[in-house]
Amino acid sequence: MPHPEFVDAVLALVNRVPPGRVVTYGDIAWALGSHAPRAVGRVMALYGHAVPWWRVVAASGSPPQGHARLALPHYLEEGTPLRPSAEAALASPDDYRLALSQARLKYDHDIYSEVTAF
Asked: Among residues 74, 64, 72, which one has the least CA distance to residue 92?
């Protein structure tokens, strides 16, 4: 079971990701001083329903595993850049990725300020 303070920090950081943008599990781990993206994934699997979970993606740009179809309407509504395109994602909702070069928040973005490392 993840430490409660780590859970709170992960969820707080995810809540700060603006619509139309994404971060990776590794980005969150890095921001919190952890070297464990899988621990972030575990937190999201257990507690992510309370936050915009679709804004946390794999480093490959894949949407949360097993949730591509559920995430797609959120990405389309928020205008999140998709690869190869939104039209292609609609045609094949289990086989798309996020365009990380456009959608991913950089490490110097505001959401990472005032984050407590573990």
From this structure: 72
